Amino acid sequence: MRAEFRDMVDTLHRNGLEVLLDVVYNHTAEGDANGPTLCLRGLNNAGAYAHDADGSYQNHTGCGNSLNFGEPRMVQLVMDSLRWWVQAFGVDGFRFDLATTLGRDPALQHRFNPSGALMTAISQDPLLCSVKRIAEPWDIGADGYQLGGFAPGWLEWNDQFRDTARAYWLGHACSRGQFACRLAGSSDLFRHRGRSPLASINLITSHDGFTLADLTSYNERRNHANGENNRDGHGHNLSANGGIEGATDDHDVLKQRGLWQRALLGTLFVAQGSPQLLAGDELAHSQHGNNNAYCQDNAGSWLDWGKADAGLIDFVAGLIALRSRYPALRHPDWFDGVPSQHNGKHEGAGRDITWLKPDGLTLCEEDWHDPTRLGLACLIEVGQGQRPAQHRIMLIFNPAATPVRFTLPQGRWRLELNTALAQFSGAEDFSLYCDADQNTLIVLSQDTKAVAQV
């Protein structure tokens, strides 16, 4: 098994892919005080687990026990495990489950400390300090929600990006200001202590919750097969079904679901930050409404490649290529809305980002907060690294149920993406305006040399 895993990692590396492990160091399988004695409870119960003053287990994870990372031997155990995976198997990083628990400090009554013993040990370790570290920045304990609270060097799952993108496209309460903040990297959460937009792990879905197909097919979770009377799993999903709950052959409903899926995927790949795609979303994988399928090791949760949506696979591949092609879609620095020193000297050189209403005018204060008008565009002009921008990119968002006409900045524009049509690289004759169909994201590009000649 060890040789097989190492061979897998080496093969992925040869093909340009890195490998990150999802690791769970916050609790053990021994459960609460009534659980079996399997390992740590029998070795060092008092030191291994976090306890209340009366000696009962603290439960920051929902699994009955939480490990104590004020105990040096527990820090050593995790550090040895992490180093082993990197040294023996060559993995490139880790995603830490319920990472807030890893930073709970006994000296602070088990409150979260981003410079806690384990966190500090990882950051100063000569091997581990350079691998990728992704935090699930919450647990269920007191003050467990710590999004944006981790130290520089950590990346964090951004559930606010997830919820805002869902709300914007699927008809729940949202504003242009909320959406723009998440699209631009969530500076309110991460722009401190030298952190960059890349610290935000943007996601629409994850292994917890609905798949993308189910997010756009179910208003309510369907977790009855889990044996908990449909009480498990999150009830606040910000989902939509297009008019019919669950599977259907209705053409209009399926069309609407496709519009939503492509708009959500498009948003994920044009947003600043680090995009995370749930395996199976590119196949249109469904768990039949089960949003807590961790206990379903069967056909209800397995990826069915025989029924994969080939068109959606091609669409996601196109999004990845689009993001790779244009630096404006993956800028590693924060936008300030001011002219960039690297944008060149041509007359048309503009701000790094400009936000526009459909009529082509910039937004005023009330426009950002108006919940009834959500049509939005932004113009981005940044180059790769320190080089001047070679292209201007315009992103057009129409989450409404009717088409909206957008006035364009001067010059001719090339179509790079229309999510409504699943179309990439169209005609170069856009000028004056662009019509965005319902629930559509459009990406346009313009050569900056052409702008200088206008």
Distance between the termini: 63 Å
Number of H- or I-type helical stretches: 13
What's the CATH H-level superfamily name of the largest domain? Glycosidases
The largest sheet has its strands arranged as 1-2-5-6-7-8
> How much of the polypeptide forms β-strand, as a percent range?
5-15%
Class inferred from helices and paired strands = alpha/beta
Helix content: 25-40%
The low-confidence parts are: 343-348
Radius of gyration: 24 Å
Architecture overview:
- It is a single chain.
- The chain is an alpha/beta fold and 454 residues long.
- 28% of the residues lie in helices and 15% in strands.
- The chain is built from 13 helices and 16 strands.
- The chain has helices spanning 2-14, 40-48, 72-89, 99-102, 117-124, 159-170, 176-183, 187-190, 212-215, 251-270, 310-325, 365-369, 448-452, and strands at residues 20-23, 93-96, 104-105, 111-112, 132-135, 155-158, 200-203, 274-276, 353-356, 376-380, 391-398, 404-407, 414-418, 423-424, 433-436, 440-447.
- It has a 6-stranded parallel beta sheet with strand order 1-2-5-6-7-8.
- The longest helix is centred in the middle third of the chain and has 20 residues, at 251-270.
- The radius of gyration is 24 Å and the shape is globular.
